[in-house]
Design brief:
Helix 4 crosses helix 5. The chain contains 10 helices and 20 strands. The chain is an alpha/beta fold. The strands form 5 sheets. Strands 1-20-12-11-10-9-8 form a 7-stranded mixed sheet. 24% of the residues lie in helices and 23% in strands. The chain starts with 8 loop residues before the first strand and ends with a helix. Strand 18 and strand 19 form a beta hairpin.
Length: 373
């Protein structure tokens, strides 16, 4: 049983207002770094002028974080990882002059603040951000460091990162609380990958089986790449998907696993929303004569079955005739137990829940209570 934590307080830094038609909406507490004028993952519904905000941070290339960002962005400099920067430039056409990319684990100083990007264990290019006073800055001793996790999956090996270990017990935390609910106790990514590979091997007895692997614009790549490696096949991706994957600085042997010819392989990477009975039925008709069975893998933590035992929790099989779907809880966000374990170890002074939160209200308080009691 996870022990109770020292109680952390809610963090509510004051923020300037941003305006939308019909009302005023403030920068949310998780979008403004305390002690700075830095904005994180907020680009939409901004007022005509925010002159005090010159530095903007994008933790990763998922639409709910870059929403509102376009090639017309002219409010300052966007800081991100090289992978995220390549995607922003290519997909959103943001001018390179507006981007500053930073390697992981290499601190840099900005307006009296030392910033470090750390691997968030989320999608490719995703980063957590550490903000602390630069050495020698007046009043720096009184400023508490801030860890902003963006979206992340906090696993035990991350506790060995020196940049996190030195913040224990003395930092504020802006935390990804996507699965901050005791029902979400899904297994590790490696366990789920093992389940997927076992399922692929079991279904591959029929050479006329089409395998579908759901993925996001960016994210879930490990699932289909591991299947391709084990079956020694290439995996089909659309030309659009390949263009995105080419921003990830893939190793040559990994790049060689990809093809844009759907006729070259029975392994297809598709958008997650395509793993449905209706779409799989359409594909079976489209490939009539070539495939007789469609097996789809839906890798997301939202497929987790809270009633399942430990073995079944790695995935669930559903079959309707020649259509087979595997719901697998492959998550790129922390499970509830992982959040609790990290809280116990990190011992933050203050917490800001960044997902499913109402800023100053009962939802935010309830999330902090779940994490600390």
């Amino acid at each position: 049983m996870t022990p109770p934590l020292r109680r952390a307080s809610l963090l509510h830094p004051p923020g300037p207002a941003v305006f939308r038609k019909g009302g005023v909406v403030p920068l949310r507490p998780w979008q403004l770094v305390p002690g700075t004028q830095f904005v994180v993952d907020r680009f939409d519904s901004l007022p005509p002028s925010l002159p005090q905000h010159r530095h903007w941070f994008l933790t990763h290339f998922h639409a709910d974080h870059y929403k509102g960002l376009t090639g017309k962005f002219d409010r300052g400099i966007i800081h991100c990882t090289p992978t995220t920067g390549a995607l922003v430039a290519q997909q959103l056409r943001v001018p390179p002059a507006r981007l500053r990319t930073h390697p992981l684990d290499e601190p840099f100083d900005l307006e009296g603040t030392r910033v470090t990007f750390l691997d968030a264990n989320h999608c490719p290019g995703a980063a957590m951000l550490v903000f602390e006073a630069s050495p020698g800055v007046a009043g720096g001793q009184a400023r508490r460091p801030v860890l902003h996790t963006g979206d992340c999956r906090l696993v035990a090996p991350m506790q060995r990162l020196p940049a996190l270990a030195r913040l224990r017990g003395r930092a504020d935390l802006i935390l990804d609380t996507t699965y901050c609910d005791p029902q979400y106790q899904f297994p590790s990514q490696d366990e789920v990958l093992s389940f997927v590979i076992d399922a692929v091997k079991a279904e591959a007895f029929n050479p006329k089986t089409l395998f579908l692997f759901g993925s996001y614009t960016i994210g879930k790549e490990r699932v289909f790449l591991e299947a391709a490696r084990v079956l020694r096949q290439k995996v089909y991706v659309s030309a659009t998907k390949l263009k995105i994957l080419n921003c990830l600085e893939l190793e040559p042997e990994v790049r060689a696993q990809l093809t844009t010819s759907d006729r070259e392989t029975s392994l297809h990477a598709v958008p997650l929303w395509m793993i449905t009975h209706d779409h799989m039925t359409k594909l079976l008709k489209h490939y009539r004569g070539r495939f007789t069975t469609v097996v789809g893998f839906k890798p997301t933590g939202w497929t987790h079955d809270k009633e399942a035992g430990r073995t079944r929790a790695r995935g669930r099989k559903q079959q309707r005739g020649s259509l087979i779907t595997y719901q697998v809880p492959y998550s790129e966000h922390s499970s509830f137990s992982e959040l609790r374990e990290f809280m116990t170890w990190f011992a933050p002074l203050r917490i800001v829940p960044s997902v499913n939160s109402d800023c100053h209200g009962p939802k935010a308080k309830a999330l902090v209570d779940l994490l600390t009691n």
